[in-house]
Design goal:
With about 210 residues, this protein is α+β, with helices and mostly antiparallel strands. The chain is built from five helices and nine strands, in the order αββββαββαααβββ.
Amino acid sequence: MDLHNIRESYNFDSLEEAKIDSNPMVQFSNWFSQYKALGIKDYNAMAISTIRNNEPDCRIVLLKKITDCGLVFYSNYKSVKGRSLSENPNISALFFWREQERQVRINGVVSKLSIKESSTYFKKRPYLSQIGAAASNQSDHIDSRTALENKFEKFRQAFPEGTEVPMPTDWGGYLIKPLKFEFWQGREGRLHDRIVFTSGQNCWNKHRIQP
């Protein structure tokens, strides 16, 4: 399969230093809100990369909250990503917003949310999502799809809809504390705008890099 002749022209917007907020969390929130307004399914999807045994691993998760301190997502703490983060809390997150010809790269470190914060969110999840989280030992081997569905059904019988589904002890939230941002805006002729923020002492340092 030859993909050499695929070409795109980027002319949606530009990213000038005067247009970008001095706080990258504010800039991220602004761009995120603009993308959300398009009404695209899974607009909150982000790719996160972790390292375990010196091997990179990447997957899509859903961003669930933006705070002044960082970005929040949820997972099983004993999943592959959870085990990776327990050994190495460094993480990279990537947002690709094709319709606006933008991407944001974020490097940072994670910390677990409190049990109270995780429980508050867990109770807001749809019933079947709660059952799915409770029934699945994420990333562990299982013999078949049928075995998985049978396990799911046993949890549904044990905790019928309308009753409280207990949050698994190994499930909860992570906060990504950003240490570096890169905002990328596609431009004509591959002269893309790339603005980088790095965390300094009580401030953010901003500079442009070549495409």
